[in-house]
Amino acid sequence: MSPTVVPAIPAVHREVRLASRVQGDLATRHFIIAEVPVPQPRADQVLVRNHVMAVTAVMRSQMTGIRLPMASFVPGEALWGAAVGEVVAAPGGGFTPGELVHHPCGWREFAAVDASWVRRLDPDALPTPAAHLSQGATAWGALRRAAEVRPGDTVFISGAAGSVGSLAGQLARRLGAGRVVGSTGSERKAARLRAELGYDDTIVRGAGPIERQLRRAAPDGIDVLLDTVGGEQLTAALAVARPDARFALVGALSGQLGGEDGAIVPVELDPGLIIMRRVALRGFGLHAHPDLPQEWTEEFGQGLREGTLVFPHALLKGIEQAPRALCELTQGRHIGAVLVEL
């Protein structure tokens, strides 16, 4: 076998920086594309040439300066996020130039990453490197481990057209759900959810009270909620929950995309309903399940090869498109994951 040929490393590369804190609508003026020297990795780091990176809703909140359970972006400094790329230099950590890896330092063309943050990928496990940036592991873990979907369950997924929800409908069906309902922001998206992504029915924000729509779509109530939104949708789900319903909470899009400052929006829940119906509410985060990415990759790869799963995503090309990609995500322009190819 011939050795892997690693392209020459240039002297400079581009990275996306936060120009100023965000107040109100996100716009391209909040970003700077800077040309800077390619970093020199330390002995405990790996230098990666990024190929594709993820754009996520929580990034808007990280740009506002509000208090969050994760670090916020700093004006004048580069943003970061999940990325897949190729190792080009590896002073330490046991990596080899040419290997495909996943790491949290996207939003730049080259990244010097602590070796402990880098996860080696099997290039044959999924059809494309971009598929390694799906948020399906969160959907899979929340439905299978937190909510424990059972055959015949009625499942409600809020934010069903997002990166988690667009896979969650398919996965709920895969786990045996009898009925799957999703919420989204437009009838155009709702039609695609029903036609292609495993949903039996949909509710549309702005088309009437959420609880009334949910009672129509799930007349016998719901057994499972996978919630990426919070707010009114979480309250409505509780109102129609069956006894012993299981709620898995993974996001708060109602604040991240709907609030002017990107803050998490408080939700009033009826403790009487929770107690009387024995509803289990459980937060779910992928960071607490380090074995899940590999489990998900095997499940996802099998589903993609068999044609039983699809990966909805938008792929914009060029790091200069990254600001537009995040702006369009916050405007609800896309279905599925939003990715940038470098």
Question: What would you say this structure looks like, in words?
Answer:
This protein has 342 residues and is of the alpha/beta class. The protein is 25% helix and 25% strand. The protein has helices at 58-62, 136-146, 165-174, 187-196, 210-217, 231-239, 253-256, 271-276, 292-306, 322-330, and strands at 12-18, 31-37, 45-55, 83-89, 100-103, 110-114, 119-120, 154-157, 179-184, 201-204, 222-227, 241-249, 280-283, 313-317, 337-341. The strands form 3 sheets. Strands 3, 4, 5, 6, 7, 14 and 15 form a 7-stranded mixed sheet that branches. It has a 6-stranded parallel sheet with strand order 10-9-8-11-12-13, sandwiched between helices. A two-stranded antiparallel ribbon has the order 1-2. The chain starts with 11 loop residues before the first strand and ends with a strand.
Percent of sequence in beta strands: 25-35%
Chain oligomer state: single chain
Total of helices: 10
The average pLDDT is 93
Class computed from helices, strands and strand pairing: alpha/beta
Segments where pLDDT lies below 50 for 5+ residues? none
Order of helices and strands: EEEHEEEEHEHEHEHEHEHHEHEHE
If you compute it from the alpha carbons, what radius of gyration comes out, rounded to the nearest whole angstrom?
21 Å
- According to DSSP, the number of beta strands is 15
Distance between the termini: 28 Å
Which overall shape is indicated by the principal axes computed on the Cα atoms?
globular
The main β sheet shows up as: 7 strands, mixed
Share of helical residues: 25-40%
